[in-house]
Amino acid sequence: MKKIILLYSTALLLATFSCKPENKETEKSTKNTEQVSEPTTIEKPILEKKFEEINWSEYSNLAPIEIKDANNKDVFKKYGIEFTGNCYACDLAEFKINKKNFDIVSLCEKNDFYRYKDFKYENSGNSLKIITSDANFIFTKVENEPIYKLTIDGKKPVLKNKRISEYYTPQSLVEKFEEHDCGDFQG
Fold first, then answer.
1. Terminal Cα distance for the chain, rounded
2. Which pLDDT score is estimated for 158?
């Protein structure tokens, strides 16, 4: 009986001592891993980078367009110029945006424009938000090509001969659309 108790207590002692060092090593490893993998300044560069990514040339001269064929997958056939506003009434507005100026310009009379003197801007993913005292103008990219849907939060400006369209694209792309001019219209 003494041999069984002695064997049992020896086995118990060995099991107890052999488990303790492994626990200490595991705890140390965990602490070291946590210390090494803690991010310290990941958020700052990401926030700064968002503001640097604004490509002002895409927004420098935005021309109004409309959906022509919503089911078409080809962007240049899906959208085109708004015939009535461009060719008949000539009452549409285009936007000229850069860091210092936010202008709503008459499509037919370039000297007829409304300038917001005090504005701020935010870039968030695929949207550029222009913040004025009256409203927020949000240009959201809706296609792979630079096609922007404009939404206005707040008081929508009412300006003579400067009707705001729902979709805009850089003026430099207008020629690529299937419907990009007034054709033979003599209005």
1. 116
2. 85
